[in-house]
Each structure stands twice: as C-alpha cells, then as structure tokens.
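Re-run with default settings, no changes from the original entry. Doing this only to confirm the output is reproducible before filing.
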Amino acid sequence: MKKEDIFAIQQLLATPKKVAIIPHRSPDGDAMGSTLALYHFLLKLNQQPIVISPNNFPNFLAWLPGSETVLIYENDKENCTKTLQESEIIFTLDFNALHRTGEMEHVLKNLTVPMVMIDHHQKPDTFATYTYSDSLYGSTCEMIYNFISFLDKKELIDKTIATCIYTGITTDSGSFRFPSTTSATHKIVADLIDIGIENSEIHNLLFDNNSYNRLQLLGRALQNMKVVPEFKTSYITLSQKELDEFHYEKGDTEGIVNYGLTIKGIHLAAIFIEHKEENIIKISFRSQGSFDVNQFARDNFNGGGHINAAGGKSYESMHETIKKFENLIVKITI
C-alpha cells in the first residue's frame, strides 16, 4: 500500500467517525472475517463502525464475534441506506467492483465520502479513494493483518480480531492447501496462535458442524457429478427442486465444487446451482495448474475471481448453461 495512502487513512482515523464496512453479496468466511476483524479494530480506535452486508451470511459463520451487530441491507433497505448516507468513511472488503454488492451498488456509487478498498481479486475497478489491492494474497484477511500493521497498530490485535482474521485465512486458503498460501501466511497464522486463538475450535466450527440435511445434499451433489476425462473436467449440478428436497440453507453448498478436483487427472471442476427466486444459475469454478478460471468466468459467465478459483452466473436454463459449458471445454486447453 502506498505510504501517502496510509498517512491519509491515519489522518482520517485520527478523530472518531461513522464508518461503514461492506463485504460482497453472499459473503463467505473471508468477507465476514475481514469485515468483523476491521470492525473490532476500529472500535479500539474509538471509531463508530458498522458492518452492512448486502444479504444474509451463512449460518456456519454466525458464531463469529460481532456477527450479531451486522446489518443486512436486503432485510432493511431504508435503515441501511440511511446509515450508509450518514457514514463518513466507507471500507469495501473482499471485492473490487461495486456491482458485487447487488442492489447496494445504487447507494454506494452516489456517495461522495472517502472509500477504502482492501481486496485480493484481479482487475480492480477505480471507485475507491484509497486502494490496497494485491491478487498475490490468498485472502483479504491476510491483508487486513498487514493493513493494521501499516497503521502501526499491530499491538491492538487481540484474540477477537485474530479469530476473525484466522477464519478468513483458513477458509480462503482451503485450510492452507491452495497455492496462494505462502510462508508469510504461515507466519501471520503463527502470530495469531501466539495471540491466543483457538485454531482447532475455529476449524471445528467452520467445517465439522454439519446438519444432516447438508450431508444429504452433498450426497446428491456427488451423485450428480459428471466426469469428462478427455477434457480433464468434472462438473456438478443441483436443481432448485433438489435444494428444496434437502431444506437448503445459505452456505450448504460451500466447498462442494472442490470435490471434483480430488479426482485423479481432473484439472477443472465446476458446480451449477439453480436459484429460481433470482432466476439464475450460480456457478463456481476451481482449477489446478495454469488454467485461469478467472478469465474463463469473465469471458463466458458474467463472473471472475482468481486464477484457480472463480464464480459466475448464467441467466439461461440449467440445460442451456450446461450445454454452453460442454461446448466451451471442447475448445480450450486445460
């Protein structure tokens, strides 16, 4: 991050202000971990922060300290809009284009207060006044740890802030499996453990707290998996009917796409999930090796993300979406 930007942000935070902190729509562990870590940090600076999420976050993240204070824009648009309009600083975390906030975009793009972007996705937009963007990092939470260090306030990272940071690092690194996990990542985690986080308990809360329905949905997803070995590809489909059958809750499909990459010889995995209410097919892509699913999602499925992990969406039917995907994989080199 530029020294002049750090200094400017230090000056902004020198006196108490109303601060809004925004994650992307359908926030994951990194989005919620980074926003709540920053929330607790700003409280220590005697600021007046509030996290406003575009929509609800998954139940498996509801244990995060401070999650009960999060405002949900979709549930109370009038109050959230008023809060945003009264804010003196806006932090946007774990996304780099305002459309990632859904309907909130219409409010955010009309605000004139300073905005601070902290994010690790590729090709950031230019809406922010101050930008800390680096796609080499595996998580925004890792960047939040650095950001607090840049402000020369690392001594304020307590167990609560460290717990939030560790959550995002763990989830976005695939429990430290993904290539973006570096020695610097492990050094940060070592510091968080020294601060006092209960890393084993956090892992249990994130990954070992399944409902019976979620496991049944996972079973159906694996039954639906198609493997195309000649194109090193696997993909899963889940219809709205199947989601309803197993009483789907937000977060229940988290991580399912990764199962496709565990098959020997598979370098590209995808999951296509029908959401009738939004009239879209939500898509997640994962790859290993050099195949860039970020560019693939951007070019073909209204999405983006990272080289080895990206998302997208389709406004066509499931049948037409899968047909398009199958036609595409024939033409690319994986």
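The domain at 212-329 is CATH 3.10.310.30 (Diaminopimelate Epimerase; Chain A, domain 1). The chain has a mean pLDDT of 95.
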